[in-house]
Amino acid sequence: MSEDGGAGEPLSGDQKREIAVWFLANAPTGEIHYVAKG
């Protein structure tokens, strides 16, 4: 882990999309609307 507290380079649009898709794909049953609304 880096020593700068995780303040590395900003995420690209593709990286943000991949993270969002992962969260939606792994949301608990019945909670996808809550996660998507964020």
Task: Note the main attributes of this structure.
mainly alpha; 2 helices; 38 residues
Could you explain how this protein is built, in words?
With 38 residues, this protein is mainly alpha-helical. The protein has one domain (11-38). It is built from two helices and no strands. It has helices spanning 13-25, 32-37. It is elongated and about 35 Å long. This is F-actin-capping protein subunit alpha.
Provide a quick synopsis of the model.
The chain is mainly α and 38 residues long.
Structural class: mainly alpha
The major sheet is characterized as:
none
Order of helices and strands: HH
Mean pLDDT: 79
The total count of strands amounts to: 0
Organism: Aegilops tauschii subsp. strangulata (Goatgrass)
Protein name: F-actin-capping protein subunit alpha
Structural topology:
Blueprint lengths: L12 H13 L6 H6 L1
